[in-house]
Amino acid sequence: MAERKIMIGTDPEYFMRNKETSALVSAIPYIKGGKHDPIPLKHGGNIQSDNVAVEFSIKPAHKTEDFIANLKATLADTIDVLPKGFELAVLPSAEFHPLELADPKAQEFGCTSDHCAWELIENDSPRHPNPNFRSCGGHIHVGCLDEDGVPIHPESQFLLEFQGKIAMIRGMDLFHGIISTILDSSPEAIERRKLYGKAGCHRATDYGVEYRTLSNYWTKSPMLSMLISSLTDDVVELIIKDQLNAIIEEVGAQDIQRIINEGDVADAKSTLEKVLISHLSEDSKFYLEECIAKIGNTDSIAKAWAIEQ
Question: Low-confidence residues of the chain, pLDDT below 50?
Answer without folding.
Answer: none
